[in-house]
């Protein structure tokens, strides 16, 4: 009996042995940074005066919610998500339907379509800033050939914000495409064939067969892109630096500005924690009731 009890105890510890590396890694790269940022958010701490660190509890959060620039940056970030991601989703969706057909060179074309998503964000931002340059940029050159005036795209708030969104759509729609293509290529052909025999047109097949079948895939794609868009930084930073007049100062850029230009680490940490909470809320809204885990709704 004693031997049997010891064996059971050993077996009970056995899964922990295999889980330990993953648990240690998650704690090191995820749990610890969040816990550290949460701790810093309760302090008034300027790196230029490192010795003067004062515990102020929730005052940083109160200051953040009373900061007009925080709300402006937050709305810019939300606007960015609500404009860019639906456009990327629509382009990716219809291209995945097109590429699901068999034709010569489809494999090569699929590979070429994915190229933008592999470009580094900072390189993409630099490329677009050169393309949008008012005097020698490619886009203004094309516009001049068509008889239009040159535009200083990144010098005006409206056009700069539009340029940042266009750059993101160009780089990230292939991400939507590859996820949706993986989903649609796994759909049984009988579904569409039966609908076609029953006389369903293209849009009827899209709305009544393809979209319902791809719903979990679409939600997953939106979720992954939303999380990615909430932490967008380098491409916007190299294109506009948040300007002109803070018109492209997204929340992620404002956090960086507070931390590494004003050195307000406690204040920036409070904004980071708020951004994490917003991400969690959006994740729960998207996942709850839309994605099945082991046959059960999440």
What are the salient characteristics of this protein?
two-stranded antiparallel sheet; flat
In short:
With 298 residues, the protein is mainly α. The chain has 13 helices and 4 strands. The longest helix has 39 residues, at 2-40.
Explain what the structure shows.
The strands form two sheets. A two-stranded antiparallel ribbon has the order 1-2. Strands 3-4 form a two-stranded antiparallel ribbon. The two termini are 42 Å apart. The protein is flat. The protein has 13 helices and four strands. The model has no long low-confidence stretch (mean pLDDT 88). Strand 3 (292-293) and strand 4 form a beta hairpin. It has 298 residues and is mainly alpha-helical. The protein has helices at 2-40, 59-65, 68-99, 106-113, 115-118, 121-131, 138-145, 157-185, 189-197, 202-230, 234-239, 251-260, 265-287; strands at residues 43-44, 54-55, 292-293, 296-297. It comes from Marinitoga aeolica. The chain crosses the membrane at residues 12-38, 74-99, 111-132, 138-156, 168-186, 206-224, 236-255, 267-287. Keywords: Cell membrane, Membrane, Transmembrane, Transmembrane helix, Transport.
């Amino acid at each position: 009996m004693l031997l049997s009890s010891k064996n059971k105890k050993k077996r009970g510890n056995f899964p922990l042995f295999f889980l330990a590396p993953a648990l240690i890694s998650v704690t090191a790269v995820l749990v610890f940074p969040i816990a550290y940022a949460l701790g810093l958010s309760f302090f008034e701490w300027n790196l230029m005066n490192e010795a003067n660190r004062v515990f102020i509890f929730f005052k940083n959060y109160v200051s953040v919610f009373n900061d007009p620039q925080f709300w402006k940056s937050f709305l810019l970030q939300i606007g960015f998500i609500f404009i860019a991601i639906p456009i990327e989703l629509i382009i990716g969706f219809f291209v995945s339907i097109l590429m699901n057909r068999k034709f010569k060179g489809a494999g090569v074309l699929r590979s070429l379509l994915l190229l933008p998503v592999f470009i580094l964000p900072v390189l993409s931002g630099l490329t677009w800033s050169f393309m949008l340059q008012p005097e020698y940029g490619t886009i203004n050159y094309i516009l001049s050939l068509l008889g239009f005036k040159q535009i200083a795209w990144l010098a005006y708030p409206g056009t700069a914000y539009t340029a940042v969104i266009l750059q993101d759509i160009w780089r990230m729609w292939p991400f939507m495409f590859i996820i949706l293509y993986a989903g649609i290529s796994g759909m049984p052909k009988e579904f569409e064939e039966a609908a076609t025999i029953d006389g369903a047109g293209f849009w009827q097949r899209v709305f009544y067969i393809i979209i319902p079948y791809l719903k979990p895939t679409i939600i997953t794609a939106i979720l992954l892109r939303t999380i990615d868009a909430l932490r967008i930084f380098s491409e916007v930073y190299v294109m506009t630096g948040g300007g002109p007049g803070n018109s492209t100062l997204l929340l992620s850029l404002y956090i960086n500005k507070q931390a590494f230009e004003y050195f307000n680490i406690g204040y920036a940490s409070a904004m980071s924690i708020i951004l994490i909470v917003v991400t969690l809320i959006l994740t729960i809204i998207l996942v709850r009731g839309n994605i099945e885990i082991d046959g059960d709704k999440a």
